[in-house]
Each structure stands twice: as structure tokens, then as C-alpha cells.
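Input/output pair, single chain:
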Amino acid sequence: MIKAVVKLRSIKSNAEILEIEKAVNTTVEMQYKAMEIAEAGMTEADLFGAVQNIAMANGNNTSFPSIVTINGQILHNHYRGNLLKGGDMVLCDCGAENFSGYAGDLTRTFPVNKTFSVKQKEIYDIVYSSYKTAVGMLKPKQLFRDVHLAACKEIVLGLIDLGLMKGDADMVVEAGAHTLFFQCGLGHMMGLDVHDMENLGEQYVGYTDDLHQSKEFGFKSLRMGRALEEGMVLTVEPEFTSFQNL
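Output:
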């Protein structure tokens, strides 16, 4: 039964894709609002409220509790009591759920004072390069696990250039050393759930009988490893955990 449901819901119809795009467009509006109003002296809760309001005005609510924090190195941080200061970076991970129940999910990190420091821009560019590399690989029959590994390698190459890592990038990724900076998986399916169908079991949704989810640190959170198919909708979200401290 689980396999039948996963097979049915993994491929989105054109009507479903339109609904997902509506939710994503609202999510983009939420992100832009956070970037627009962020300034020193506000609290994280002020930004959270503005983001929440847009989701509620345009749909059912958020697709998950929004994460709006200056401490993005803390996974799924829902504390919102910190004051924003000049030089801080804000991580906003949010998504809208529209009236039909379809979800959006988008993470962005931006400077409070609208301007990156040199170090912040260097790290941002590494993450963005990793994102572009991953998106450029998305096509039917492509193993998403390999997309994840390519994104990891791009992060390592950037960190080697900055002097934060050293060695051969392929060997670094093979040894798992990149997981010091990138512990999470690259992305997940999205649809009627923001992590679509994962309550049925990640092995059934993101993997196959022949491809199994790793239990290793840095890879056990890779929810999606299987070959991509036309009609799938998924997120691509490389992250760098030490971003906030640079």
C-alpha cells in the first residue's frame, strides 16, 4: 500500500504543479518581506510575524513553523527573542500552504543591514555556486544522491579556496569531511506535505529496494537519493552551518 501511494503521488499533475507554484510564489513574497523590513533593533519575532501574516493572508497558513533566526547554525531553531544587529545574518526558512493544501518551502540567508561583509559574501557565493551546480544536474534518470555529492564537492572547492579546508575535493567528499560544514541532505520532495509523504517512511519515498538510505553522519539526513522522474517536485537547498559566525 505504501509503495502504491508513493508511486501515485511522486509524479505531480499539471494542476498540482500550478497549485505548488502558487504556494511557492507566496513563499517568495514572504522572503522578500523579511529582507525588506529587517533592520537593527528589531527582534526575530518581528520578522516572524510579518512572514506569518503573508502566509495567512494568502492561504491556509504556513506549511511548517517558520524559522527566522540570527543563529542559523542551530538546526530548526524556533527561538525568536534575539535582537537584530548590524553585521548579523538572518536565516529565514519558511513556506506557505495555499487553500488547496499544497506547500512551498524556501530558505534564504541575508544581511540585516542589506550589505554583506567580505567574508559573508564569499560564503554566500559558495552556497549559491553549489545551488546552481545542483539545479543544473536535475533531469530524469539522474540519481539525486549524485546531485547531492556534486553540491558537496562545490562547497568543498569553495572552502579550499578560502583556506578553510585542504586536500583533493573528491577525496574530501569521499571521506565525508565536508559534513563538518554540510550535515543536511540537499533536498526533499514537496507537494501536499512540505516533506511530501515522508511520514510513510523516507526509505519508501526517497529510495528504492536497490538503493538504501545511508546511516552515516551527514548522509542519514539525505531524504532523497533515488533517480529523478519527470513530474517530480523537489527542493534544492544547500546550507553552510557556520555562515552566521563569519
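The longest helix spans residues 14-37. Residues 241-246 have pLDDT under 50 and may be disordered.
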